Amino acid sequence: MTRTLDAHCEAILEEYRQHLPQFESVKNEVLDLLRSTLDGAGIIVASVEARVKAEGSLAGKLELKGSKYSSLADITDILGLRVITFYIDDVDKVASAVERLFEVDWDESVDKRKIHEIDSFGYMSLHYICRKKGFPYRFEIQMRTVLQHAWANLNHDTGYKSGVEVPREYLRNMSRLAGMLEMADEQFSRIRTELNDYRRRVQALVASGNLDEVLLDGDSFRNYLSLNPFAKLNKRIAAVNQAEIQEVSLMGYLPVFKGLGCKTLGDIAKLIKDNSEAAYQIACYQIGLTDLDIVSSSIGPQHLCTAFILRNGGGRGGLKYMLDILNGPSEMNEEMAAFLVEQTKDLPFMHASE
């Protein structure tokens, strides 16, 4: 597309061409710095993007309003970056990081989140105009959430802001959708805050030993495992052969304990207390006459669950259920369940109530 520019705009365009390599270099520097800073601060974002305005795009801008710029330095979006966050409150965290990295031109920066028009959701970005030492041109960093970014792109694709008159029914539907997305954005952040509060409460309850008050779920079980609740039994079993204990993840036992009826961490603690002796008897029978010198840290919980199932009449079906959860369903689990029943039928714990 051929554009007609006056001498002033052509001079700005020529200045752009001369400094384009510098813009590209600074783009990479700022992009790397932003990514490493956010990563170091533990701020997880959806993406960090950067671009240098194409010559055709700049020419179009100059053709429309070139007279308002005295030089290339007046155009603040030649270099533009965008940080897309998952949560609303992370936008402010990213902004804080940007403020520490660069000099922010507050007079030119805009917080569009303070706009409260009914259709403004997708335009609620935080825009900082920044300066970097040793680089004479300012650049723009936009910060917005994933949902805000999606909305802005949808608006762009549908031509909602194209200047073409849109039928009232479509405007109303777009405004309703904007409200729904804004509410979703707020709720995602609220849910994350509440979950973090819940996790802190769980950690405090587990640390204090109030296990009966802690419902059994992924977070609480993970915190419980940090107390090494099976360590005493594992060490006792390993001592039979003076074996080394190899640590493995025990999170796979969460659905097993739930399946056995445990609803709180206190239920697991009681299961350990009531079945440790039986679990030890099973382990002694299985490894006592072997030269096994390495055992998994799962040996304790597996024998605890085995003992609980057998002592409570679960038999082969209960054992197969446990093995299917731990190993995945297979015919071998049926055989192993039958073998365990046969192995343990004469052990003392099976006749303790007789």
Task: Summarize the topology.
Layout: H1 7-40, E1 45-52, H2 55-65, E2 79-85, H3 88-101, E3 103-104, E4 110-111, E5 126-131, E6 139-145, H4 146-158, H5 168-208, H6 218-225, H7 231-238, E7 244-246, H8 254-259, H9 265-287, E8 294-296, H10 299-311, H11 315-327, H12 331-344
Helix pairs in contact: 1-2, 1-3, 5-6, 9-10, 10-11, 11-12
Summarize the structure in words:
- With 354 residues, the protein is α/β, with parallel strands linked by helices.
- It has two domains: 7-163, Beta Polymerase, domain 2; 228-351, no CATH class.
- The protein has helices spanning 7-40, 55-65, 88-101, 146-158, 168-208, 218-225, 231-238, 254-259, 265-287, 299-311, 315-327, 331-344, and strands at residues 45-52, 79-85, 103-104, 110-111, 126-131, 139-145, 244-246, 294-296.
- Strand 5 and strand 6 form a beta hairpin.
- It starts with 6 loop residues before the first helix and ends in a 10-residue tail after the last helix.
- The mean pLDDT is 89.
